[in-house]
Each structure stands twice: as structure tokens, then as C-alpha cells.
Amino acid sequence: MKFLVTGGTGFIGARVVVNLWERKIPVVVADLNLNIEWTKQIALLKHQKDSARLAEMQEQIEQTTFINLDVSNKEQVNNVFLKFSDITHVIHLAYLMSAEVEADHHRGASVNMLGMINMFDMVVDHKLSRLVFASSETIYGANHSAYGDENYAVKESDYCSLDDHFYTYGVMKMLNEFTAQKYIKNKGASIAAMRPPIVYGDGRMRGSVLWACEFATNPALGKKAKLPFSKDSRDCWIYVDDVAEQFVRLALKEKLSHFAYNNGGHSVTAQELMQTVERIIPNAEYEFDESVSRTALIDRCDSTRLEQEIGFVPRSLEEGVRSQIEEARNRQLQVNY
Q1: Which residues form the NAD-dependent epimerase/dehydratase domain (predicted)?
Q2: What is the pTM of this model?
Q3: Domain CATH code at residue 140
Q4: Are the beta carbons of 88 and 50 closer than 8 angstroms?
Q5: Which structural domain range is residue 52 located in?
């Protein structure tokens, strides 16, 4: 068994790679802009208090191949599988986020559409055991009102019209899923999609949701957090390490019951989110932008399907926020040292 992780030194990808290292599963890490030291740092900080585990992480890192890869270039993609013919599984996370897509639709389509199809072709051409890719809660549209009751948790079978969408990114994810199911039905490919909500944690470096890092990391470092929406804005949040665990478990399971899965998470208002931070950092400073009533995202996701499939329930919001704060502080201590 060997994994390829595309976008493997990005915010979620690096956590997936560390998860595989912890399982001692060989991995090839591919990214257009490799951030190798960042990925190594996540692993070493996580296990710094356990010398035996730290040595294991060092060994896994030394055995890992890091490669530059543009997934929109089919020849480059195919060459990876020719060079590493023992790759059996792929977790595909190489994707341009919403702001990047809106800034350059041509590049967005090249990476997000053609790049995804290139990866689907690899599943067939190289007879891979499984490809799991990141879809998104944005496929459900920009407003929970499309589903009626505000307390309703959106299920995988729910959908809305294009008129209810805001992000080109989300519509691209819809087409990714549609195309994947063609490959499953017509070519026998083993592909699964997960639909994360807001993924929080330390270390986001780009994208339009940097606040999903700064809400807790800034107070952890004695800085003010600014959330660009109302205190009453409700969203669904999940910790990045839990998303990594979900990706790996879904990739490893021999047989799946479904194609698409909600990651789930905790549905809270922005004020409730910051009150969680305050329970850990009583002097946390933060402010909201009351001129923006809500984010262009749905409020609640049902994760029953995924929990039953892989036997994993994400940690509580407070546990996740506490982990993020601890990591941010440990990283700062290392920088200062």
C-alpha cells in the first residue's frame, strides 16, 4: 500500500500526510508549491513530548518523497504514476479556493475541473484501489433557507438550484461529483467524495477564510481576532485533524456503502465560537462585523452517514479549539527559541 496526497503540504493535506506517517503508511506528497518544512513541523510539534514517537516521525519523513506537481497537466500527473507504480490510493486535495477561482477563472477551471478529471483517469488507467477527494459544503448553496427549517441538518441527498448558489467554487464541486459518478458507473472506478464545512485549525496561510485560523490562533498569541460577519452568523465547524482522520479512514475502508459523505461538525454562532475561545483564554479580544449578517454558507450538516461508515466521531468544539491554541503557542515558542 502506498498513498499519493495531492495538495499534500496545504492546510488539510499536511495533516493527512502526518496522519499517514503516524500509521506508517508510505506516502508520496505532491503539491504545486511545496511547503515541506511546514509539513514536517506539524508532525514534530505534535509528538515533541514523546521521544519514541518523535523518532518514528523522523523515520517516516526520511522515507517520504516530495514532488512538485501541477494536476492540470495530464502528462505530469501520469508520469507520477509511472515513476511510483506502487501507488494504490490517492487523497486528492489540490484545488484552488473561492477567491483564487474568482480572480482567475481560466486557471480555476484548469486546476479544479481538468485537474480532477486527470486524477479520475489515473484511478482507471493505473487500477487504483481508491481515490477520495475533497468536495465541499458549498455544493448545498449559500443559504440554509433553501432547506426550510433553520434547525434542519442538511443530508447528502439534499440539493438546491443554481439560483441558490454564490460560489463558482461550489458549482465546480457539483460538477466534480457528477463526473466522478460517471467514472464509477461506466468505468468501475473506486471514488468517494467528502463535503467539509468550515475547517478550522492553526496554520491557514491563504484563501478567503483565514479567519477560520485567526479566531483562535490570534488570541493564543495575544492578538485580537476579527471575524468578518455578525456575532449571530451560524456556521458548521470541524477541526482539521479530524478531517484528516476522516479522509484516511474513508480511503482505507475496503468497501464503501455510498459515494458522497458530509464531514459533519459543530453548528454554532460566531458569538458561541468566541465564547468557546474565552473559556480557554479568558482575556481573548475579538470583534465582529455587524454589517455582514451571515456567511454565504449553510448552517448545519448531518454526518450520520460518515460516522456509521468509518466509526469515527469528531472531537468536541472545545477540544478542537484547545488543540489549535496549544499548537499555535508551541509553534510560537519554537520560533522564539
Answers
A1: 4-253
A2: 0.96
A3: 3.40.50.720
A4: no
A5: 3-200+238-265+296-315
